[in-house]
Amino acid sequence: MQFKHLQHYVAMIMVSSALILSTIFSLIAYQINQGLAVKESERQVKSLMSAVKNTASAALFSSNEAVGMDAINGLLGTDVVYSVTLEGFADELTPGMKLESVHEDGGAPLNTITMKLESIFDQDHILGELRVTPNENWVNQRMHETSIPTIIGVIIVICVSCFVSTQALKIRISRPLVKVRRALKDIHGDSEERLSLPKHLQSNEIGVLVDGFNELLDETNSAFSVERGLRDEMQEVQENLEDAKAGAEKAAQAKSDFLATMSHEIRTPLSGVLGMLGFALRDPQVHDKTREQLDIARSNAKALLTIINDILDFSKMEAGKLNIEMVDFDLRNEVLSAVAIFDDMAQDKSLYFNLVFDDDVPKYVKCDPTRIRQVLVNLIGNAIKFTEKGGVDVQVSMLELSKFSMRLSFSVQDSGIGIPEEGVAKLFQKFEQADVSTTRKFGGTGLGLSISKQLVEAMYGFIEVSSIAGEGSNFYFELPMGRGDAAACEVEIREKKPHTHKLHVLCAEDFVTNQVIARTLLESMGHEVDIADNGRIALEMLLKGSFDLVLMDGRMPEVDGLEATRQIRSGVWQDTNFKQPDIKIVALTANVTDEDRDRYLAAGMDDFLCKPIDELELHHIIDDTINELLLKGRELNPLIRASASELDNLFSIPEVSVPEVAPVVEVKAPLNEAALLSAKLRTAFVESLPDRMKEITRAMIDEDTKELGRLFHGIKGSAGYLNDDVLVKLSGELEEWADENNMSKVRTAFNDFVARLKPYKIT
Amino acid sequence: MKNIQILSILLFFLASTDGWAEETDIQMIQVIVSSQSELTTLNRKQVMGLFLGRARSFPNGNNAKAFDHEVGSSIRARFFEGLTGKSISDIDAYWARLRYSGRASPPKVIDNMAEILKEVSQNQHAIAYIQGQDPAELMLQDIVVVHTVDAN
């Protein structure tokens, strides 16, 4: 709203009052003037009548009409008279007379004024009457003449007094108030200023108002100071809280980092142990008893690795670094291979183990297979661990199915010791088991269920447990999944062909065990390996020698993997140019988080290999490297392991003609022979596989161990030449157990064997 | 008649006091008419009407014609002052008002006593006033005194 000065408002009131007063006073003045004018007219008429009285009287006395008319005309000669009547009464001497006349300019009569006319000679003798009416026109005119100045005078007086009052008001009230208003603008929340008024306004309503405001201001000021104090306090508290939070976060981070580092530090030597045990078991010269001991050592090491992995997962969850993938996969295959290990475990404890897929569960789904496997392994592992008699039932059911998604339930029911009611609540908490005695009796970290719960929840599912102590437990979880794409599931499977060319590989790795593993794996694939103990040595070697591939550990003393990679990519180190600044560099790393990946890629690395090194992955990477180098036009030494004729005999395949391949320099066996060998080996094995599998399956059903021993022996032989050491080992073990008539072990290992054959099923 | 009785008593009183009574008689102004007019007496009001222009006939209906003395004469002043109680200037002002309109008819002036008596005796319509005449002598000339004015 627009600001308006109080004086304007007052002036408005004054002006309107002035108007009203002027009107009223004008009307009153008009009335008074009218009365006055009427009286004046009467007075004038009377005086005129007095003036003509004697003449009129004489006229009546002598009955002289002419004289009478003279008197009448004399009266009518003034404007104040409207009409005149002169009447003489009859008596014994005269018959009487009556004369009448009206003012020639017209007008209107007012009240008649009558005058008795007595004889001049005898006061008691009434001769007649003189009747005169004053003229209204004269009265009106007179009124106007007198009223207008009166009214103007009144209006002027009223207006002047209004103006004077307004000015007085303006000076005495409005201006001080305007000053107060200005002062008010400058007064802020906590200013010390107060409003002040001139003395004459202090003791009236305005004074009270201003006093009230000042009091309010005092109160506001005190409220402000209190509020400011509170705010400061809050600030302090908040700062303390933030410090505390930062401290807590730092501590949590330190804990997670410590766990991660510790797990990593433990995993690295453990990988070495596992790798070494693996190599030792491959050695055919190892005695059976020693082999058994090595086997136990390996399974213990594996168990230890599982625990370490749990801790690593847990610390990742703590740090919020757990990633869930979404990939298409074959659910049944995945679950089957996950639970395969438990068949054997259950049999060892004389338990039954059933896995049931409801018919409507689709074959292909989209979710994180690794995590589902982890959860299932954990739950089933627990179930078997805590069950002494009876067995374990695993059921996978479909709950909902829509166009793009579905909801599946997984149930693991055992007939074990169960969990007491009070234990159920803390079951999924970290480091908690149903009770302490459990830990003593059954062992375990208490992390498994906590991790399972977090994994299921990370996949937007939930997990719950129902249990009756002494009768068994039922672990149940539901997961939403996408509908899988069958085509996408098949792509992942990759053949493991023997390498066609020999590479010169530089492995930069400070840990001796890993050096040995890397060297063993690479040499077993037929490649030449040089080891550098740290990044600096690796760089020196790269400056001097010629290499095709670098395997680079991330963490190394002196110069780490990232720094070394950056130097190679920059092309210069210690003023010397690298021969191949674009050489393929593959990171060897134990903890592959997205963050790590980004860091490695940013440094200029091309690929990653997880430690412990997966032989298959290493194989694929080298395969890719060979192809890339060939495409670039690099000349590489061809690689061959066995002669074609040997293989032909082994697989009883007639010689086939293969297309000529360009001869290669420096050959142990000619390249065409190598290619021929490789192709023949694979084709023959793949072609014969379906028939062989049928025979094996039949023999499994019939429990014909003799037949099985023969068949596994055959596979072992072929696998040796396919360069598939694992298959060699697996089929070797199976052959051994078949020979020993140990069907349960054969069954247990059979799943791994089938999984190992997967790559060969597709050509 | 009453006036005459009063006058008779007054006259008797005056006659008994020596010398003064005659003087008093001289002061009396007599209003006279012809005996042929058949009038015996006129009251004051009637006399005033006839001499001041109000009445133009006698009470019996016969026309009347008043005769006056010369303006400024002593008798005229005494007559009108005695008759009306007003000063002679008032009477003159009255006539002046009437004359102003131009149609006034004041009585005809005859300044000779003998002329007056002759006129009255011969004219039955005439009326005039005289001073100090014996009514009996007047009767002989066929003149009747119808009113007297004490003018002192």
Tell me the layout of helices and strands.
The complex is a heterodimer of chains A (763) and B (152).
Chain A: H1 6-61, H2 65-76, E1 81-88, E2 97-102, E3 113-118, E4 126-134, H3 136-186, H4 199-202, H5 205-282, H6 288-318, E5 327-330, H7 331-348, E6 352-357, E7 364-367, H8 369-385, E8 391-401, E9 405-414, H9 421-425, H10 436-442, H11 448-458, E10 462-468, E11 472-483, H12 486-491, E12 501-502, E13 504-508, H13 512-524, E14 528-532, H14 535-544, E15 549-553, H15 561-570, E16 572-573, E17 576-577, E18 584-589, H16 594-603, E19 607-610, H17 615-632, E20 637-638, H18 644-651, H19 671-702, H20 705-721, H21 725-739, H22 743-757
Helix pairs in contact in A: 1-2, 1-3, 5-6, 6-11, 7-8, 7-22, 8-11, 14-15, 18-19, 19-20, 20-21, 21-22
Chain B: H1 2-16, H2 20-27, E1 28-34, H3 44-51, E2 65-68, H4 74-84, H5 88-100, E3 108-109, H6 113-122, E4 126-131, H7 135-140, E5 143-150
Parallel strand pairs in B: 2-3, 2-4
Antiparallel strand pairs in B: 1-4, 1-5
Helix pairs in contact in B: 1-2
List keywords for this structure.
heterodimer, A: alpha/beta, Heat Shock Protein 90, 4 domains, 20 strands, B: 152 residues, alpha/beta, D-Maltodextrin-Binding Protein, domain 2, five-stranded mixed sheet, 7 helices
